Sequence to fold (414 residues):
Amino acid sequence: MIQTKVCIIGAGPGGVATALKLSYLGIESVLIDKAVFPRDKVCGDAISGKVTTLLNRLDPDILERFAGQPTHTDVWGITFVVPNGKALNIPFQPNYVRDKKNAPGYICKRMDFDNFMVEEVRRRDNIRFFEGQSVEQYTRISEGWSVKSEDNSLEVEAQILVVANGAHSSFTRKIAGIEKDNAHHAGAVRAYYKNVGDLQKDNFIELHFLKELTPGYFWVFPLPDGHANVGLGMRSDFISKRSLNLKKSFFEIVENHPTFKERFKNAEMVGKLEGYGLPLGSKSRVISGDHFMLVGDAGHLIDPLTGEGIGHAFYSGFIAAEQARDCLAANEFSAEFMKAYDVRVARVLGSEMKLSYRLQQLMRVVPVVNFLGSVIAGNQRFLEVLSKMYNDFDLRGQLVKPFFWVKMLLGKKR
Fold:
């Protein structure tokens, strides 16, 4: 029997972020994961500026150690390709300098990134980490929660339980009562390739909004040594309505689509094509309760447009750690007190996810998207404005307002 202030289930980005933030706050925790690291995790592998910003705030040495790893690719921008084939190359930083020390984003296989973060956990003497322990038994006790591993070899009692064990969390479904909603959920498939042709300059990530996939998209994310993360994702309700087989659609694109068959003619798949689900944050949910909080994918916090989950897991993990600190200081763990966690997550991530959902809906209107793509492509003034939106939430909010585009088309400044 282990007794602790905070027990965290899941050592992915959300769980590790919670444990590290607690550690730097001087609060002990127990971190448990069913896997033994390093382990693979099906994902798009994109590490956004949210992650680098939070790591730098926590401890610049962590970010410096990560930046020095050979396992990732620096990413300096994004290429949106609209259904008519027009490509919008948008740098994450206007007038960026390519050889700057720290890139605004990275692509890193989850096998490598998650293992790096777990190694950071091992550096901290106030985090007790147990791997290879699958927790499926959760019992509410007067002091908080008791959890047991599947084989009963590990039992932990904690005042606060942080659930960060991913999109298929049984706690999320059975105890928190959050069910899958196909209108706010996506399915995706991903494979690794080597020797993909015509990868973007400066490692821009590629999002291809193909007409036959709207409102989903096909992606190509560059990795070190000429490798790439290649995938296809779409909202689950559209997959169901169209009776789509994503794996079949993926290979049809790679082998037959005019844009990709030439690029992939000499490419070789490394491993196999794998599928996964993404619980999207486009619907408001209660993600806390008596003595517990849901973090990352377990809290259905994935961006509805881009599918980004790692950055949101980090943010929610940091917020959960600070909420745990407040609970312990006040000796108050009720659902009512825990609501402060939901409020902060909604303030930090909720508005952004609502906007992403509106943009996702806009992307379904193919003629409008094609028109805007044709107008923007090659127009330096437009591209500079769009580049600024990476770090300017207010500007991103203008993208769904028709008057913004009228002003831009008339040549007026924002």
In short: The chain has 13 helices and 18 strands. The mean pLDDT is 90.
